[in-house]
Amino acid sequence: MNVEYFSEGLECLMYSGRKLSPEQRILIENSLIVLMQENRFSGMYFWGRITATKNDYYIAFGYTNDCLKDRKYFYSLDQYQWQLLPFVQSPKIFQATVLAVEPFVGDPSLLTYVKLDPTFTIVANQVVNISRPEVVKLKEEERLAAIVFIISEECAICPRGALYKMVDGRVIPNQMFRGLNDLQIDNLSYYQLYRLPRNDLKTNLSKRSDYNYAIDFLDTIDGVIPLNQAFALNMQSNERIAVIKSCVWLGMTFFHKLNSRKHGFLYLGDGRKNFDLLFMY
Amino acid sequence: MDSDNQSCRHFSLDSTSSTQSDRPQTTNKKKAKKTPGKPESEVQISPPCSDIITSSTSSSSTTISMRALDSDSRVPKGAIKNMILGLMRILGKKQSYDSLRMFVTFNERVEQLQFYWNQAGFIISKNDIFQLASSINRLQTHPSIMQCRFWGCIYGLKSSYYIVEASLTRDEMLSRLNMMEDEMREKQLPFKMRKNQEYKPKPAHIGPELTPGIYGWENIDPDDLAKMTPKAEPVPLAEEIEFYDIPPEFIGRGCNRFSYFVVNSLYDDWIELPIVTPRQIIVSRHIKKFFTGDLEADVVSYPCFPGKEKHYLRAMIARISAGTHIAPQGYYRRMTKKEKDLYDGINMDEMEEEGEEEENYNEGEEDQLPDNDVMLMKNERFEIEPLSTLATPIAWVHCRPNILNQGRIVWFDEEKASKERERQLTLYLKMRLMEEMEEEAEEEEAEAEEEGDEEEMLTGFIHAEIGPDILSSCGNDMNTECPSPWLVRFTSKYTNLKERLLIIQSNLWPGAFTFLFENTCESIYLGWGHKFCRRNIPFNHLPKVQEEFPHGSEDFIESTDPSVEEELAYNEWLLNKQKRPTELGEDGNEYDMEEDDDQYGDDDD
Fold first, then answer.
1. How many of the other CB atoms lie within 10 Å of CB of B15?
2. Subcellular localization, per the record (chain A) (predicted)?
3. Can you list the positions of beta strands (E) in B191-293?
């Protein structure tokens, strides 16, 4: 959620049931403005909070040039000192993060050991070799970075038209974006995933008749698997605010105000994926 | 319509059993005490709840005391004088006297609480909360509602539920109890004893039409048809299995102590949720579903949930409030005996005279089982400790009773009830026999009594299920899945140390919060209505598909199909065989015939 309209955004996100206490709100807003100026970011966003048993993690990100590619994530335990989240590349860490079931503790240097699933390789015809499950050392800071990456890849949302692809390939917030109108606002195909597109450009363009190269390059959320079950869209406050909640990552809430450029997502949760989703409809 | 009817059935009750163990004890006590001089009233099987009802309204409460005047000769004269004075007072008021009004059950001030919620960082919305306050106010003016408080929000996929917890007035509760008891008594009866058994039509014929007269029987004379008996076996019919559920707790007791009202949008009228049955609680522990926001939606699950979404919602509310309503130690206290009697609806004036007896009676009871099903009172002498000492779950206690594995708060002896049913059935059958032949019946009666004695011996060995006590510490909460069930947070770490709130949030039920500030402590739930699970919940597997009809291994023998070449060879051989008899004559023909029969059995010339 953009720091530009922080308080207003929080008000709109109240439909998730949680928000920040006054102290937290003031601390975070001010410290993020300072952080933005120090790093010369052109945009600063508050990402959310991951509940841990001792101290909660607060996450924020900012960007300088390209709001999809060079996002920089920060975390904070005390809401005003922000540390850079490491960039995780190793697939083992991601695997371990998905498999880790223990709650976050709130100590970034904490080491835990996670047992990966055993791997099965076909050795010969109808002979399968089982390797022993590998044990991975998982630092909580890396786990945090991985879970933040996964969550924002899977369910960070922006309305169609909010991001604009320049001729040189950079993606920037669309200055001309004036919000979705009342015909579009309750339609899932007008919301896009806030990540680098995974689908082919042609696939995304061919989905709609009024396609626009600069806008429709992102994946829309109506194609997220499980279809029609991954997100729940509600209209709130006299049908003037669209609130989309992710059913896969419970706690991720997105809002968009009708006919205004204000939109944002916030994750307030414990970093747990809802694996039972398919049984719950 | 059908589904509506069904839901109504669920709404009321799904279960059966003997009511005796579960009836509010006070009424039993009262009855025993009120009618010492009138033995005939005990003998006749009058609806026992009439007694409770009368005690509630002013007009009939007078009749009770009058009766007491007549019968009780032991009461000294001064007491009688007092009583008459009290009577006059009650009559003078000419209003329904409800002792429940004297008890503050809930903190009703929504907007005041909203301030704290706002500080604590969990909240509905500023605009919504005003509407909510007005809407709750509207609900409160309803004559059958005593007090209500905002319980919380449960999110649904299409819309969320705002939930209000309400305590009913005694009149309302008693009129409901009355209906409920009749129904429970009906349900408890063994199937054979039920009077209004529905006639079920026999199922329509399934499978090929074997009945003469439909197809292919046109040429046969109808008179012959009437004489015919079908060779095929009749279609098997499903037998009715006797099945009794554990009975739900009475309204105003246990899980059904409060009633809950929900609404999707705050402009609408509040809808009351049905009572919860133990079966619904048990099944809801095995499933995890999203709420849709539609109360009448089906809950598609395995094991099959007995009811609609409103029943599921009600079961979840019962479980969540049992698990997450907490308060610091000493904030609540148990009721004293006087208050308890007052709460249970015994008038003060009558209580004074009977005080001694009741005390003895109660003591005897409490020795047996710690009473979990109680209403707690706010402790007037509670003094807040510094918040930092309370920042540990050990200093907090549960203030709602624990729900047993059975799905009830007060344990129900199912085996005893089943024996009770058996005994009733034998009695009933005996009665029938009596009508037919009197002599034999007497012998059977003697036998039945002997059996009864044995059963009583056996019941001694069944132990009641015991859960954690009400007001037990949160520090003792054990869960194998969740290592730390409670999280403690302050709203302010650095700046406003004097006015900060303490928040305790439940890990087991994500979304359940309790805040404490000076003398205000409230719990609220804002979440999806899902219990914590470590990774995924172990759903029950579906049972194996039933066999349509049992068959042995010899019934179907598999064989490989002949290939094209084999078929061609066979045809050729057949042709050869047809040609050969003309050439060879009769001997060869016979020989071939025999071989044919052995191999294939169906080929002839």
1. 18
2. Cell projection, Kinocilium; Cytoplasm, Cytoskeleton, Flagellum axoneme
3. 259-263, 271-272
Same domain for A13 and A110? no
The one-letter amino acid code at B569 reads A
In tens, the pLDDT along A181-220 reads 999 998 999 999 999 999 999 999 998 888 999 999 999 9
Of B383, B327, B335, B348, give the one whose Cα is nearest residue B502: B327
B540 near A CB under 8 A: no
pLDDT at position B289: 92
Q: Write out the DSSP string of B90-125.
A: HHHHTS---GGGGS--S---HHHHHHHHHHHTB-S-
Please check whether residues A265 and A208 belong to one and the same domain. yes
Q: In chain A, helix, strand, coil percent, each to 5? A: 25, 30, 45
Helix B110-120 to helix B126-140 angle, to the nearest 10 degrees?
150
| The residue type at B309 | E
Any idea which residue has 């079950």 for tokens? A229
* Any B CB within 8 A of A250 CB: yes
Q: Are B393 and B477 in contact (CB under 8 A)?
A: yes
Q: A243 and A169: one domain?
A: yes
Element (H, E) at B348: helix B348-368
Residue A264: other Cβ atoms inside 10 A: 27
pLDDT (0 to 100) of residue B11: 34
Q: Is the Cβ–Cβ distance between A177 and A261 less than 8 Å?
A: yes
Say whether both A125 and A248 belong to one domain: no
DSSP state of B514: E
Amino acid type, B187: K
β-partners of residue A159 are A191
Query: Which DSSP string do the residues of B404-473 spell out, in sequence order?
Result: PTTS-SS---HHHHHHHHHHHHHHHHHHHHHHH-HHHHHHHHHHHHHHHHHHHHHHTTPPPP--PPTT-B
Å between A216 CA and nearest CA of chain B = 27
Which whole-number Å values give the CA distances from B122 to A17, A21, B84, B523, in the listed order?
Answer: 6, 8, 54, 11
- Helices and strands in chain A: count of H runs, count of E runs: 5, 16
Residues A134 and A166 in one domain: no
Question: Given A17, A20, A280, which is nearest B153 (Cβ)?
Answer: A17
Residue B119 reports pLDDT greater than 60: yes
CA distance B111 to A72: 41
ipTM exceeding 0.90? Answer: yes
Q: A81: closest CA among B493, B209, B431? A: B493
Considering only residues B222 and B13, tell me which one the structure prediction assigns the higher pLDDT.
B222
Interface contact A279-B539, CB threshold 8 A: yes
Number of domains comprising chain A: 2
Please tell me the distance from the alpha carbon of residue B402 to that of residue B323, in angstroms, as a whole number: 7
CA distance B3 to A32: 56
Half-sphere exposure of B311 (CA within 13 A, CB side): 27
Contact (Cβ atoms closer than 8 angstroms) between residue B496 and residue B97: no
Domain that holds residue A132: 91-146
| Cβ-nearest to B528 among A20, A78, A250 | A250
Indicate if A51 and A167 belong to the same structural domain. yes
Across the range A43-55, mean pLDDT stands at 92
| Residues of chain B contacting residue A101, judged by C-beta atoms under 8 Å apart | 534-535
- The beta strands (E) that lie in B449-596 are given as 486-490, 502-506, 512-517, 520-527
Asked if residues B6 and B14 have their Cβ atoms less than 8 Å apart, the reply is no
Using DSSP bridges, classify how beta strands A83-84 and A71-76 pair: parallel, antiparallel or unpaired: antiparallel
Do B490 and B503 meet the contact criterion of CB atoms below 8 Å apart? yes
**Inter-CA distances, B63 with B54, B68, B91, Å:** 8, 9, 11
Taking the C-alpha atoms of residue A6 and residue B322, their distance in angstroms, rounded to an integer, is 37
